[in-house]
């Protein structure tokens, strides 16, 4: 009989009616991978360390560098999956990431226009997606995704950055799962209005996520960079099969009224593989992630460190 695995959840949430609905959804003979949790951001290594790259835009030089980096990501995403962000989860995430660091609308539109004509001939630049694996402080695992027109240059930059912090390239991908990731909020106060948002029952969000096709859902802390009412709203992270990312996000938005903050395909650390770092190891990890993100070609950095 199929099993639905539930972890870190309130016992009262699973009455007989709910269990019946779940079993109807996943009948005998199917092999669903459904793992649900209710945990805070600090339990997720990737969430904790990935926020570093959103907090260091202090001068124009850095802002210009980040604009170029996000522009390249948009071009690559559009080239792979088309220029419609509603059907291209990777492009949607690239555009939203650019907006979060104030990349101008003009720059984003220019990147989309370039994507339409990007090719290998006539002197045009060919961008390749590359993934590097590394061993970090405290035997933690690091995965680095880059977008480059010169792989030799990029790997040299990555290796140099790692070596400076006593880290090295090495096998790490088996500590992660490749997942579609959707981060949502639920507004109870209209956008632009004043007022205190009311609490949304997690059981309700759980039900919606199941119906939409989620594999895992967790409650994160409110976005530290958000303003106004949104700063008080918890963020919910949904994990899905990568091919279902856009479909599930659209379902959560259209059928249940959630706002999509981010969606994309990410490396998510396996629960059993997460590593607890000491204070000094954590400081080293911070330096590693920051310096990797300063490399022009690097797009994302993931770790299994808590």
UniProtKB/TrEMBL annotation:
For the TACO1/YebC-like second and third domain, which residue ranges apply? 128-305
Q: What is this protein called?
A: Transcriptional regulatory protein
Could you tell me where this protein is found in the cell?
Mitochondrion
Q: Which family does it belong to?
A: Belongs to the TACO1 family.
Which parts of the sequence belong to the TACO1/YebC-like N-terminal domain?
47-117
Domain of life, source organism: Eukaryota
Please name the PANTHER family in this protein's record: TRANSLATIONAL ACTIVATOR OF CYTOCHROME C OXIDASE 1 (PTHR12532)
Matches recorded under InterPro entries = Integrase-like_N, TACO1_YebC-like_2nd/3rd_dom, TACO1_YebC_N, Transcrip_reg_TACO1-like, Transcrip_reg_TACO1-like_dom3, YebC-like
GO biological process, any: mitochondrial translation
**One GO CC term, this protein:** matrix side of mitochondrial inner membrane
Q: Which organism is it from?
A: Lipomyces starkeyi NRRL Y-11557
């Amino acid at each position: 009989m199929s099993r639905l695995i539930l972890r870190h959840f309130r016992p009262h949430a699973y009455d007989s009616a709910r269990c019946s609905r779940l079993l109807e959804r996943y009948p005998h003979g199917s092999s669903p991978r459904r793992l649900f949790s209710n945990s805070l951001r600090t339990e997720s290594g990737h969430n904790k360390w990935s926020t570093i790259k959103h907090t260091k835009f202090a001068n124009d030089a850095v802002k210009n560098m980040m604009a170029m980096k996000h522009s390249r990501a948009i071009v690559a995403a559009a080239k792979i999956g088309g220029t419609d962000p509603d059907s291209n989860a990777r492009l949607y995430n690239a555009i939203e990431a650019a907006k979060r660091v104030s990349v101008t609308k003009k720059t984003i539109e220019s990147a989309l226009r370039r994507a339409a004509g990007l090719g290998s001939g006539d002197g045009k630049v060919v961008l390749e997606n590359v993934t590097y694996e590394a061993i970090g402080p405290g035997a933690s695992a690091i995965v680095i995704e880059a977008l480059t027109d010169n792989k030799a240059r990029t790997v040299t930059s990555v290796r140099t950055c790692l070596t400076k912090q006593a880290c090295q390239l090495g096998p790490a991908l088996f500590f992660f799962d490749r997942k579609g990731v959707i981060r949502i909020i639920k507004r109870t106060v209209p956008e632009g209005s004043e007022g205190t948002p009311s609490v949304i029952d997690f059981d309700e969000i759980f039900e919606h996520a199941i119906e939409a096709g989620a594999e895992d859902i967790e409650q994160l802390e409110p976005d530290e960079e958000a303003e106004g009412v949104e700063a008080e709203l918890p963020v919910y992270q949904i994990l899905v099969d990568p091919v279902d990312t856009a479909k599930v996000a659209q379902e959560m938005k259209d059928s249940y009224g959630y706002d999509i903050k981010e969606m994309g395909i990410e490396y998510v650390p396996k629960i059993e593989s997460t590593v607890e770092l000491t204070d000094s190891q954590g400081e080293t990890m911070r330096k590693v992630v920051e310096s990797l993100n300063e490399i022009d070609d690097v797009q994302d950095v993931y770790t299994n460190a808590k």
